[in-house]
Amino acid sequence: MAKFLVQKAASHRIDEIFRYTSDQWGAKQAETYIIGLFDAFAKIKSHKILSRPIPAEFGVDGFFFRYKKHFVYWRYLSNGDIGIVTILHQCMHQIERLKG
What we know:
Helix 1 (8-25) packs antiparallel against helix 2. The chain contains three helices and five strands; from the N terminus they run βααββββα.
């Protein structure tokens, strides 16, 4: 059974999301948001969360879905597992952040 692996860039973003949410709305809200995010990761393989292919102009292979105020970018790894590539806030410029 395929599992998901949080890659380095996504791990940093999760830390940032937690810190920001905790600073703005408290640790309990930050924990709830991150738990929901990980629940969404677990639903990718079973297609219980709707993902779309990343548009060709992004220059990367993979998929994305929206989780509340963030876009989660992921791809299939060579062993069949799912790699969580990065997580970007809806206000971030998607193409430039993925290429950078």
